Each structure stands twice: as C-alpha cells, then as structure tokens.
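Q: I'm building a small set of examples for a reading group on sequence design. Run inverse folding on the following structure and report the sequence directly after it, with nothing in between.
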C-alpha cells in the first residue's frame, strides 16, 4: 500500500499562545511531539504580520527538529532573506494578504513573475526543496513546471468547504484529480493542503499521485478533544493533593 507523508502544521499552537501573550503552548513542544508521533515533516507559516509563528519559533524549531521543517513564506524580499539564512529543507511559497483569516487561494503565478523566478532560483541553489501553493488549475500547474520547482501543493480549501457544507463536491474532486495526473506527468511531486479534515483527507488519499498532505487547523482543533480529558484529570489530581 502506498504511504502518504503527513506534514503537521502547528501554526495554531502559536495562535493560542499569542491570544494571551504567554509563552505556552509552545510551538517547539508541538513540533517535537509531531516528530515523536510519526509526522513526516512539520510545517510553519512565518507570516509578514507574525500573527502566529514568529522568528524565535523558527529559530528554535529549526535547531531542534530532526524531521524536515517545511517553511511557508510569501514571495517577498524579507522572507527570501530569512529563508536564505535559516535554510529549512523544505519551502512552500504561498500567497499572503494582510486582512485574510487564512490563505484563501493559490498563488497568482503571473504576479511579480521575475521576482518569483529569482526567489526560486536562489533558494534552489541552497538545495532547498521548493513547492508552490496553487489552485487545482491546469494553467497553474503548467506554469509551476516552467518555474522549475520540485513540487506543487494543491489548495484543497474549496473542496473541503463543499464537504463541510454537505454540498456536491464531485466537480472539484474531478479538477483535483486531473491536476494531480498532469502534475505527475510533468514530473512534479504533488502535495495537498488546506482545510483538510478526517473526511476530506480520506477522500483525497484515494487519489493516486498525491504524496504529501499538510494539515493544521482541524488537527490542532481535534487535539483539544483528544487531550482535554487528560488535562482535566491532571488538574483534579493536583487539586486533591
Ligand atoms: N498548506 C498550506 C500551503 C497552507 O498555507 C496551510 C495553512 O493555511 C495549510 C496547508 C494547512 O491548512 P489547514 O490549517 O487548514 O489544515
């Protein structure tokens, strides 16, 4: 049976930490826990506004993590500098809008193309695996190939949304399948991510040719229910003694 790699996105551990300005829960602790429990990589998105993961998190995690760190960055001069200095093994280039709640769509590969090309070239020179976060579109996957990246990550947000709302997702699934097939034919490694839940990941895992899933928000949310009972029991014990 084929094995799909799991990249665990821990951004929202930092979201919870930052909500109170404390130093817990620790993204580093979460990264090491992901590693201990069989994650194939850990993903963090260092956003321009540092709303969750910050520069210190990146430094600490890259120092301690033994599995590959997948750093998501926007195509900006600042991020190019940070990525060139920290040299994570994997980089995924993502679009970023200041006001969005989350990464709302794939990259616009025609925007600032010269800069994007240059950024990819510079990071590839440092032997970093480069991925582009794209919509499930044939035009975009062909363009990604021309940009000489190693991988693409298909934005699964729309597909997952349809599933969550119990709407017809067949067309979106068809689009994803087609793009995965073309990506493989072009020699690109194809990944998938955004909005994945147990249900949507299960459906997409059946598509031959997707080799890596990056999952964050739902997984961190689910962890509350997996871990809450243990936390309550620990407090009960402390309060008894
Ligand atoms: N992949 C990429 C490129 C992302 O930017 C994100 C976060 O927006 C994810 C995967 C994970 O998405 P989610 O947190 O919805 O699982």
């Amino acid at each position: 049976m084929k094995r799909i790699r799991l990249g665990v996105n821990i951004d929202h551990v930092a979201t919870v930490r930052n909500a109170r300005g404390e130093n817990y829960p620790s993204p580093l602790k979460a990264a090491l826990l992901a590693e201990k429990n069989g994650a194939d990589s850990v993903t963090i998105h260092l956003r321009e506004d540092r709303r969750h993961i910050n520069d210190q998190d990146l430094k600490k995690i890259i120092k301690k993590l033994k599995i590959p760190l997948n750093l998501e960055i926007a195509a900006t001069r600042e991020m190019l500098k940070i990525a060139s200095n920290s040299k994570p093994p994997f980089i995924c280039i993502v679009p970023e809008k200041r006001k969005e709640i989350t990464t709302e769509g794939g990259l616009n590969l025609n925007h600032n193309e010269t800069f994007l090309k240059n950024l990819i070239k510079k990071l590839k020179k440092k032997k970093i695996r480069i991925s582009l976060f794209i919509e499930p579109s044939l035009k975009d996957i062909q363009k990604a190939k021309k940009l000489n990246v190693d991988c693409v990550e298909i934005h699964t947000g729309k597909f997952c949304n349809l599933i969550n709302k119990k709407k017809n997702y067949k067309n979106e699934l068809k689009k994803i399948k087609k793009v995965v097939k073309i990506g493989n034919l072009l020699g690109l490694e194809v990944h998938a991510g955004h909005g994945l839940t147990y249900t949507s990941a299960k459906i997409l895992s059946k598509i031959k040719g997707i080799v890596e899933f990056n999952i964050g928000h739902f997984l961190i949310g689910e962890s509350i229910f997996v871990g809450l009972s243990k936390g309550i029991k620990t407090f009960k014990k402390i309060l008894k003694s």
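The CA atoms of residues 145 and 186 lie 7 Å apart.
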